[in-house]
Amino acid sequence: MAASKGISARRRTLKRAIARSLTIWSQTVDSAAEFCRALDLLQQTGARSPVAISSISAAAEAMQEIAKCVQSWHLVPIVRDGKQDGFLREFGAPMFDYIRANPHYSAVFNRAMTSYSVVETQWALAALVSEDFSQIRTLCDVGGGHGHLACGLLSAYPQLRATVLDLPDVVGETDRLWAPKLGLSQRCRYLGGDMFHEVPLADAYILKSVLHNWNDDECVRLLVNLRRAVVGAGRVFVVDFFVPGPEEPHFSKLFDIHMMLMVTGRERTAAELAELLAAAGWRYDAWHRVPNAFHSVIAATAA
Ligand SMILES: C[S@@+](CC[C@H](N)C(=O)[O-])C[C@H]1O[C@@H](n2cnc3c(N)ncnc32)[C@H](O)[C@@H]1O
């Protein structure tokens, strides 16, 4: 009894300290902490002390970094003048430029992305199950972060070798990369570079949560790069929150607003992506959807 009173008191003190450092009400700390735990930004260190997180200051900093997404939500001016990119308005630079210049924000953002991937890789693998991967020997995961999806594919398809292309700082976070952790380094290389400049040769490309960050012209520029580099009648697989018809409620419709407010991108319908693919020299093949998954996959072949 005395011990449990001690734990409750410690928990209250911890919550107040986090709330003070964030200038928020302590009642909201549980929700914020839960959100950060879901993004793998906080660790729960003991079964008996749910708020026993690894470090108060790390928690507070992580929450403040993540809050930058919300600070960029300049809904009214963006809707009025149509000039997208709330991150640019709020922080004076497009999000990925800001990330490059701010290592701390970058670390939090990249961790959040990799954490989403733990669920999203499973959706992508399930959506791709009807695709024939037997002829694909080399695959490049473009903007592939720490390589969670690439490693999922390497595990599913033993003949495959993968390159994970991302910004140098992202692939430079060596303690966060999945391939060494999963013993897949021999079949997976990490390459730092700019996907708008050059992509490595491959039989197939995959892009998860990448095209939705960019406007149509930027997407076509990227897809043209892939088309130039693809080997033979290669493939491209685009994994995103594709928007279904107006009658179907879907998470993509909320995320579309988020992308509109944060960056230059948007969520697209399958028909809209097919147009961009065609403009870049790809032929749309199929839209693979799986029940209860927010993501789906659009597959195309070099035309
Ligand atoms: C929304 S994240 C998605 C990451 C990963 N595909 C995933 O699903 O977890 C977009 C990724 O694109 C990368 N990126 C942005 N601009 C890039 C560029 N010019 N060249 C290469 N990668 C870029 C970012 O660093 C980031 O890892």
How does this model look, in words?
- This protein is α/β, with parallel strands linked by helices.
- The chain has two domains: 2-65, no CATH class; 116-302, Vaccinia Virus protein VP39 (Rossmann fold), CATH 3.40.50.150.
- Helices cover 48% and strands 16% of the residues.
- It is built from 13 helices and seven strands.
- Strands 3-2-1-4-5-7-6 form a seven-stranded mixed beta sheet, sandwiched between helices.
- β4, α11 and β5 (230-240) form a beta-alpha-beta unit.
- It is globular.
- The relative contact order is 0.10.
- Residues 45-56 have low confidence and may be disordered.
- The protein binds S-adenosylmethionine (SAM).
- Residues 96, 113, 116-117, 143-145, 165-167, 170, 194-196, 208-210, 213 line the site of S-adenosylmethionine.
